[in-house]
Amino acid sequence: MSTGKFIFKATLLIAFFNLMSKVLGLARESVIARLFGASVYTDAYQTALKMPNMLFFIVSGALATVVVPVFTEHAARGEKGEAWKIFSTVTVAVVLFYFAAAVTGMAAAPLLVKLVAPGFEGTRELLTVELARILLPLMIFAGLASLFSNLLNASNIFGLPAFSNSVNNIFIIASAFTLGKIYGIHGLALGTVAAMAAMALVQLPALCKKGFGLRWPLELGHPGVKKVCSLALPSLLSLSVNQANLYVVGVLASWLPVGSISALGYADKLIQFPVSLFVLALGTAVFPTLSMRAAEGDREALTGALLKSLKAVIITMVPASVGLMSLSHPIVKLIYKGGAFDQRAVEMTAAALLFYSVGLVGQAAGILLTRGFYSLQDTATPLKIGAATVLVNLALSLALIGYLRHGGLALASSLANLFYMALLMRCLGQRVPGLRRGGLLKFTLAVLAASGLMAAASCAVSRALAHLAGGLAGLAVQVSLAIAAGVVVYAASIAVLGGKEASFFWRSAREVLTGRKE
């Protein structure tokens, strides 16, 4: 099977299970919104959840980028036993680290809350401390789930890791209706921890079948383990920089009115829907291939895989960005409104979604471009670019928050994402010159033109059907038909471009979908 076809089929499989997970994820957020609204409770829950998640994304994110290449390198040389020995040592070390971090964090929870949400006072502050002590152990199970997923992906098993996210969402939904009804927001926090444990455990049998098992004694001095640590350090710093962007948003939002943090969180979940559905699926599927091609020194194949993946990002994320901006208000109303989620919450969340959508393409392309650097075992360049991006985000946030409140924070994040993407593309183009000759600019212009026509059609249909939006069913019809009209126009408008532009677009799209160069 050709590289393009393999990546495409793997991406489809991951995307299928991710679609299931993301639909359940939206259901999860909808349930939480209707039960708790955009309130003191959800502000505290989201802030407390951010504490273990920030450390998890830094440590496990760094390991994900280096464990797979090192594991693949040993496996490619026929050293499967050594590869699993490295993974076993890393797994035990990760569990011990997260356990120590959780215990320390629980003891220092009041101080942590002051650091991540200095604007919280009274009930919000006390509630966040209580929830943090419940949620901090979550990072232990999240770390295991991440390691298991990455090694299964490296073994070309993509379905189960993607499906495990659905298990996580199902547990949280169930806990919201059970523990949440009995113990309130504290019950939801308990269910969130249990959900992450289930996510890790469901992957363990498949991993054991592939050869995983704890191998004693642990070999911390193994050359492969040392290589993981040396490669992970720059990545740790790079991901710390990325999390600093979220930290900036959280700190500044803590000074805004109640519900601002929740509105940003709910909007971000909608933004992550297309990113997680396709871009993370694509990045997960293509990363082992990029690592292998880079290890083999096959720059032509590496360039081809990157170009196809970038075109796939452009063809999906540009219209997604434009569509979310065009229909931000009705989408938020459809997904979240009801119960404790009132009209004020709708307006706040829709504003955040509008501004977050501006940077969707930057966020999506940034994920893929970063994987390109990591496949070359270059973790320093994303670190430097990320550090510059934090400063840009901070400056923009301070400049915009006074005018747009929480919307200003969302817009600042979006502009910073676009800045990050532009610098990554420029630097990776110097390492992989073929990217500059891949026709990306021409392709992007065609997609932008089609997306503009799509937005016009979607807005026209949405306005024409606005009278149906009184009830949930009518609102669903309005949004569905507006999206359908946009999709039809998006596809059909390529023909309107005419000549070489239309031919280029369809040829590039077929290359993305079939993996064959025409």
How many distinct folded domains? 1
Distance between the termini: 17 Å
Helix content: over 70%
| Biggest sheet architecture | none
Quickly count the helices.
21
Order of helices and strands, N to C? HHHHHHHHHHHHHHHHHHHHH
Mean pLDDT: 86
- Radius of gyration over all CA atoms, rounded: 23 Å
Unreliable segments (pLDDT under 50, ≥5 consecutive)? none
- Number of beta-strand segments: 0
Descriptive report:
With 518 residues, this protein is mainly α. The protein has one domain. The chain has helices spanning 3-36, 40-76, 80-107, 109-116, 122-135, 138-154, 159-177, 179-183, 185-201, 204-209, 223-253, 260-296, 299-326, 328-336, 343-357, 360-375, 380-404, 406-431, 440-464, 472-497, 499-514. The longest helix is centred in the N-terminal third of the chain and has 37 residues, at 40-76. The protein is globular. The mean pLDDT is 86.
